[in-house]
Amino acid sequence: MSKEQLTLLHKNHLALGAKMAPFAGFMMPLQYSTIKQEVEAVRNNAGIFDVGHMGEFEVVGPDAYAFVDYLITNNFLTAGDLKAVYSPLCREDGTIIDDLIAYKVDFDHVLLCVNAANIEKDWEWITSQQKGFNCVLKNSSNNYSLIALQGPNSEQLLNKLNLMPTGEFEHYSVRKLLWNGEEIIVARTGYTGEEGVELFAQGQAICQIWDKLIKLNVTPCGLIARDVLRLEAGFSLYGNELTDELTPLDCGLKWTVRGEKGRFIGKESLCDSQYTPRYRQIRLALERGVPRTSYPVVNSSEAEVGVVTSGTLSPTLGRGIALASIPREKFSISESYAIKIRDKIYPATRYKKPFITGGYKPWNSKPQKS
Amino acid sequence: MEFKTPEELRYTKDHEWISSDGDVITIGITDFAQSQLGDIVFVELPEVGTTVENNSPFGVVESIKSVSDLIAPVSGEIVEVNTDLDNAPEQCNSAPFKAWMIKIRCSNLDELDSLLSAQDYLPLCQEN
Hints:
The complex is a heterodimer.
Chain A: E1 5-6, H1 10-15, E2 19-23, E3 26-31, H2 35-44, E4 47-50, E5 55-60, H3 64-71, E6 84-90, E7 96-106, E8 109-114, H4 119-128, E9 136-139, E10 145-150, H5 154-160, E11 168-169, E12 174-179, E13 182-187, E14 196-201, H6 205-215, E15 219-220, H7 223-232, H8 267-270, E16 279-286, E17 296-298, E18 304-314, E19 319-327, E20 338-341, E21 344-351, E22 363-364
Helix pairs in contact in A: 2-7
Chain B: E1 10-11, E2 16-21, E3 24-29, H1 31-37, E4 40-44, E5 51-52, E6 57-63, E7 67-71, E8 76-81, H2 84-87, H3 91-94, E9 102-106, H4 118-121
Antiparallel strand pairs in B: 1-2, 2-3, 3-9, 4-6, 5-8, 6-7, 8-9
């Protein structure tokens, strides 16, 4: 018997013939069909992912928003009602404990969604910082199930299942709704760069929604496809791009550090005018070859100047793609970079934008007035 | 799942197939290997004239998320390389027994004795 935790959908995965493996203390589906088919389904149609391993913390009380704003580097208070905010969670010295999404579920209720591997570390940190804030913290990681429905057909599928919130529902928004008598938190977030939602629920409803989506021919997708999709979209992964040693300014997350807001943990370090980031994150695509984590990045003189933090073959582009980190002093905007694979140099093109860029349209369940 | 193991070929525990013609052998990966690897996206092979050692890596086969060594089943000199796989690595998935990789002129024909028959190889095609 394995000691890994099982998600509520474990039996569903076995029934679908998923290849399962331990991941961050959970038995998780790696893939069901082929990675290519799963990635293509999300890019062109729709896919569903069990991400029940992710951690959920709840912050409830009059100071819930203020406390979350103090914890994270991004601006939580200025985000509108029922919005979600992506942010690193940093220590005083600016190093990254984790990255998370904070959801304004209600005026006095914030849901924090954190990485599975960091649940204990985050919980210890967050509870240690709460002094002076009038709110209650709850680690609800074992109570919530979480599935992600991602892809251009997500909107249509949500409508079909009566899971579309009423009124305008923008990207990075969240709503609570009742579905078959159970409360579902529907969030327009994801980790694929496509339109879609993440659905949080505490009861069996997630299994019913999963089964309904499978019956509607939505492609079940595993963690490998999820990793390929997030890399195509240029999203960082904690453990690869983000680590305990780096600050958000070292890894392309300057936009999440909001010096204009009030006090927050890490502000003194990150917003100090003397502070200079140590690394520059770049995106590289190859004509030939597949970059992988820890492969060296070389400059035009073939000197090793950096390292690949994540790499894969992108099924969407048909090319090898990578996120790479280069020490600031070795980085030059005019330099051309290549990746060394088994001692051979493979030329690369720098992408100024993510490899895949989707637009997020507002969803509106109200009939359009002509 | 059923995996093809043509009777006329010989096999290795590393899931490669071998056909021989005199002292020249042809090497590819088996149906089981391609199935385990998934979508093959890159094959890196040595140049003609390179010498290889029995049980040592001679190249690499990559799927979207994995890198696997190709292991030489015999020692000798590479006399031919299937450069078609450069632009069409997916042939390893669609037709594994046609998508040969390299041909080696064996320097020690005794090494061929340790290759497996289809019958002996089939039990190694176990998914874990």
